[in-house]
Amino acid sequence: MHRICLSLQTAGYQLTLVGRKQKDSLPLPDRPYAQKRLNCFFQAGKFFYIEYQLRLFFFLLFQQFDILCAVDLDSLPAGHAAARLKGKRLVFDAHEYFEEMPEVVRRPKIRAIWAWIARHYIPKVDLAYTVCQSLADLFEEQHGQPFGVIRNLPLAQPKAQPAVRYPENGPLILIYQGMLNEGRGLEELLAALADFSPQEVQLWLLGKGDKMASLQEQAQSLNLGEQLKFWGFLPPEELQKITPQAHLGLNLLKHQGQSYYFSLANKFFDYVQAEKPSLNMAFPEYQRHLAEYEVALLLEELSPKAISRAIRRLLDEPQLYQQLQANCRLAKQDWLWEKEAQKLLTYYEAL
């Protein structure tokens, strides 16, 4: 959200970013726009969502604003109620296909509730946009509401250090940045890592999540030792320093619902900005972007064997890695937030 808020603030809008405070929330960083965190007694489950809607609604009710942007379905009911009571414009920013998220798909009753919220509220917004063309097409068909596309592209980064080249001597370092959660292909990744020696391949996991303990146990059972390093959570500025030191970015997902299938992860572009070829699933958006710049390898299936085969190919074909990295250097000049922000401003000016 920082890029969106910063671009709008810089263009002359006065922004307030509203979220909720969690038990492990870090202190709010200094930003050029206002920030507010709501305190909730409940932290998860149906009571949390009920409490959050009420707290968000009453907070918004006593705020002055001309445009209200609801980010994802979990803020849309309260946002819709507050915006309509005050006669203000309502924007919907869909970062997720909410009712198709893995933790929702396997719970039919919960999924039905989120699907009803989407059908009921999305057609009533004044402006809607999402993170990729696949989701925009899908939402337009479902709800009869035009959707724009604002991709989560990175800001251009000053080149503090040169990106590492193909390792002539030493291991190929794989890097995963993001949540260590279900459906991210991490178990399959660790199993594939066991096919290589520490001198051939090493893996850095940058992040934390529900699967960290079980992944540590799996690593111990596979005797991965020095091949695997858990970095824990790192702020964006630290990620920007560490990512260029690795060789291959990882962005693996199980096909657990359409939310993952139609996703376009931030990390895909972050790897490109760091001049890192990456390994991704052969999902529609990655196929679409690789047709423009071939910066990655795609997997047709998520399995240890498929992952191992792709890594082995890069070890055996250094010229392939070098070509992918050269394409990253071209793509990073094009896939920039500074360009995408111009579309965002056009959308808001039309309101």
TrEMBL record:
The keyword Ubl conjugation does not apply. It holds the Pfam family Glyco_transf_4. InterPro entries: Glyco_trans_1 (IPR001296), Glyco_trans_4-like_N (IPR028098). One of its GO terms (molecular function) is glycosyltransferase activity. Residues 2-151 form the Glycosyltransferase subfamily 4-like N-terminal domain. GO terms for biological process: lipopolysaccharide biosynthetic process. Keywords: Transferase. PANTHER family: GLYCOSYLTRANSFERASE WBBK-RELATED. This is A-glycosyltransferase.
